[in-house]
Design goal:
By secondary structure, this protein is an alpha/beta fold. It has eight helices and seven strands; from the N terminus they run αβαβαβαααβαβαββ. It is globular.
Length: about 220
């Protein structure tokens, strides 16, 4: 990486609390960074830290010229506003792509965000690398989280897909999914999509985090 850009980029991951799933996701990030030569630092705060303490930590990394990327690991404890924290991350260091400026630019045709949410970009790459045509296709996304569902819908529209975003108040979701060429789930609930919801030849991608008990 230093050979290509003249320096070692540095990513800081800010973790609040001790969630097992958060540690797992961070380990994946650190492993990926190590493979491509990106320096990393994990800044850990206790779960009972105040919102101001977290804001101060993020702001300090915004001002640090040796830090090129910042990830605030989600979810945060309930007493901390995720929106307030995401808003304070420098958009040029917001490698998750969750800052309103980055999401807004993703939504507006002709504009380019500094970063695109990684899960959404991975979904598109998965489709393209397997030769799945996106342009002109109907896509049903189940779930509208700001981490996956919403940015994925925006990115698919950039690829000229017709997107339906389904949520808890959507009536007859099976009627929508049964007409979709591509179905993407983002709800973290195993078996939420039934076989009779999917038309023959449709592509299904589960982007949720599910645990399934298997009896041997």
């Amino acid at each position: 990486m230093k050979t290509e850009v003249g320096k070692f980029p540095k990513l800081v991951v800010v973790l609040v609390g001790d969630r097992r799933d958060s540690h797992r996701f961070i380990d994946i990030k650190l492993e990926a960074c190590e493979k491509v030569g990106i320096e990393t630092l994990v800044s850990e705060l206790p779960e009972n830290c105040t919102e101001k303490e977290l804001l101060d930590v993020v702001s300090s990394f915004n001002d640090d010229k040796d830090v090129h990327g910042i990830v605030v690991q989600l979810p945060l404890p309930q007493h901390i506003s995720e929106e307030s924290i995401m808003n304070v991350v420098n958009p040029e260091k917001d490698v998750d792509g969750f800052h309103p400026l980055n999401i807004g630019n993703l939504a507006i045709r002709g504009r380019k965000p500094f970063f695109i949410p990684g899960a959404s970009k991975a979904c598109i790459e998965l489709l393209l690398n397997h030769g799945v045509e996106i342009k002109g296709k109907r896509v049903a996304i189940i779930g509208r989280s700001k981490i996956v569902g919403l940015p994925t819908s925006l990115l698919l529209q950039r690829h000229h897909a017709t997107v339906s975003l389904l949520h808890a108040y959507t009536k007859s979701p099976e009627q929508i999914t049964s007409q979709a060429d591509i179905v993407i789930t983002d709800v973290g609930i195993a078996n939420i999509v039934r076989g009779n919801w999917i038309k023959k030849g449709a592509v299904v991608i589960d982007m949720g985090y599910n645990e399934i008990k298997i009896n041997f």
